[in-house]
Amino acid sequence: MKLEGIITPIVTPFHRDEEQSINYEATKQLIDHLIAKGVKGIFILGSNGEFHVIDEAEKIEFAEKVIEMVDHRVPVYVGTGACSTKETIRLSKKMEELGADALSVITPYFLT
To answer: What are the Cα distances from residue 39, in Å, to 27, 34, 36, 54, 62?
Structure first.
């Protein structure tokens, strides 16, 4: 994989419903728009991707759907940072299995 161009970190769109569920229609629109405008990578679940408020199952489902939506048009970068090293490793391995092109791993953080 060649790193080049603009790699855009995207927000995680949510519905305004009681569950605050992820809005996959808006996600698809955002991805298609960015790729059409020439970005060279999509970066999900980073610090502006609300990774800290999404549980592990939602992260996996979101990544799986984004990887499908992108469909190899550009690389998909996935943030796998978590509060624990075990969760970070588990999530990183799962994202690799799903077909993420690259991972972004931050050191374990704490919330005050």
So the answer is: 15, 6, 8, 25, 20
For residue 77, which phi and psi values (nearest 5 degrees)?
-100, 135
Convert the pLDDT of each residue in 37-80 to its tens digit: 999 999 999 887 788 789 999 999 999 999 999 999 999 999 99
Q: How many CA atoms lie within 13 A of 36 on its CB side?
A: 6
Our CA angle for 32, 80, 49, nearest 5°, is: 45
Q: Both tokens of residue 32?
A: 């298609």
Tally Cβ neighbours within 10 Å of residue 107: 7
